[in-house]
Write a structure and sequence with these properties.
There is one protein chain. The chain has a 7-stranded mixed beta sheet with strand order 2-10-9-8-5-3-4, sandwiched between helices. The protein has a 3-stranded antiparallel beta sheet with strand order 11-14-13, covered by helices on one side. It has 12 helices and 14 strands. Helix 1 packs antiparallel against helix 9 and helix 5 runs parallel beside helix 6. With 367 residues, it is an alpha/beta fold. Helix content is 41%, strand content 16%. Bound molecules: 4'-deoxy-4'-aminopyridoxal-5'-phosphate (PMP). 4'-deoxy-4'-aminopyridoxal-5'-phosphate binds next to helix 3.
């Protein structure tokens, strides 16, 4: 029975059988022309997914946290000032990372389930001198969706490079990297990109690459350094064999298939589907009397829901839903971890999943 369980956590998600078949194929040499072709196509497809025709993509073995640290390590030098628009646990994480890399960090923090207003962020930016500004597009701990377009515009107006944590958004939420002036946006394979965990994905704008090139000291980590990865990615995109560190060959093959599905669906259709499914889930939550953690509808993600436990119900509900055949996630935000649970709805999610999840939660609540 366990293999028929429906995995509805905010990553990893349910993957398309064609993606898993690609993962299970014979492992080829990372220099094999078939792998080169898939790598090259994946990089090009990522520019389409991010709507960033001139950005430099990087795909490196590792999780989303590695992608996060790649952004921070390449763009931070000791003493740089960074502004973190903090909407939860993963904003805290990037703030801590920036500090480790020597930045002086200011947080514009909101209560869990909320996000700072544009005015608050503007006032903080007016404080001046920020080299970097970070935004968590969807903070997976709270399901808060940040207004990236408006925030990025503010960051640009004040001369900051804009870094977007898109781990829980890219491929599921609207993100027009280049038009919105985003300089770095990163994600991981296991969420709305629809491939198993293990790949860190990062796209950098021309301005981000220029900032990296202008560093006065080398990047401390060799594995994270754009200097190591840039020639490799340029070679792979040109389908020329090259080596710095062994790519996760099977994951690249799976990512290529998954990105093909995204492109075939069309990004606009894909985003619209996530909006439609999250609206269907919202109707189900209302019918079940479940309240969202993010109070304002405009701040609710389309890739997951964070729901407060009703009175008299606690974290045992997550286990009970699991016993009904659907795996959901508990709370994550340290301040109210035990007060809510989370349902992921990204990637190949469908209306059938809405019905299955709603039925499982109804049965679990009944018990
Ligand atoms: N940022 C966000 C918004 C995330 O949701 C996650 C993973 N849940 C991460 C960063 C870290 O990614 P990973 O777990 O793949 O390291």
């Amino acid at each position: 029975m366990t293999e028929r369980n429906l995995l509805m956590i905010p990553g990893p998600i349910e993957f398309e059988p064609s993606v898993l078949r690609a993962l299970g194929e014979k492992t080829r040499s990372h220099l094999d022309p078939v792998v080169m072709k898939a790598f090259s196509r994946s990089l090009k497809r990522l520019r389409e997914v991010y709507v960033a025709p001139t950005a430099q993509p990087f795909v490196v073995a590792g999780s989303g946290t590695l992608a996060m640290e790649m952004a921070v390590a390449n763009l931070t030098q000791p003493g740089d000032k960074a502004l973190v628009v903090n909407s939860g646990y993963f904003s805290d994480r990037i703030g801590a990372m920036l500090e480790r890399h020597g930045a002086s960090v200011t947080h514009v923090k909101a209560a869990p389930g909320a996000i700072a207003s544009l005015d608050e962020v503007k006032r903080a930016l007016e404080g001046g001198g920020f080299k970097l500004m970070t935004i968590t597009h969807v903070d997976t701990s709270t399901a808060v969706l940040a207004p990236v377009k408006e925030l990025a515009a503010l960051g640009k107006q004040h001369g900051a490079l804009v870094i977007v944590d898109g781990v829980c958004s890219v491929g599921g939420e609207d993100l027009q990297m280049e038009a919105w002036g985003v300089d770095v946006a990163f994600t991981a394979s296991q969420k709305a990109l629809g491939a198993p965990p293990g790949l860190a994905v990062l796209l950098a704008s021309k301005a981000a690459m220029a900032t990296w090139k202008a560093r006065t000291r080398p990047v401390a980590s060799m594995y994270l350094d754009f200097a190591e990865w840039l020639p490799i990615h340029e070679a792979y995109e040109a389908e020329k064999p090259s080596y710095f560190a062994t790519p996760a060959v099977n994951l690249i093959m799976a990512l290529d298939v998954s990105l093909g599905h995204l492109i075939d669906e069309g990004m606009a259709n894909r985003i619209a589907r996530h909006v439609k499914i999250s609206a269907a889930f919202a109707r189900a939550w209302a019918a079940l009397g479940l309240e969202h953690l993010p109070k304002h509808e405009a701040h609710r993600a389309h890739t997951l829901s964070a729901l407060l436990y009703p009175a008299g119900v606690d974290a045992a509900l997550v286990k009970a839903i699991g016993a009904e055949g659907v795996t959901v996630a508990g709370g994550l935000h340290p301040e109210l971890k035990t007060k809510y649970f989370r349902v992921g709805h990204m990637g190949a999610v469908s209306m059938n999943d809405v019905s299955a999840v709603t039925a499982a939660i109804t049965r679990a609540l009944g018990k």
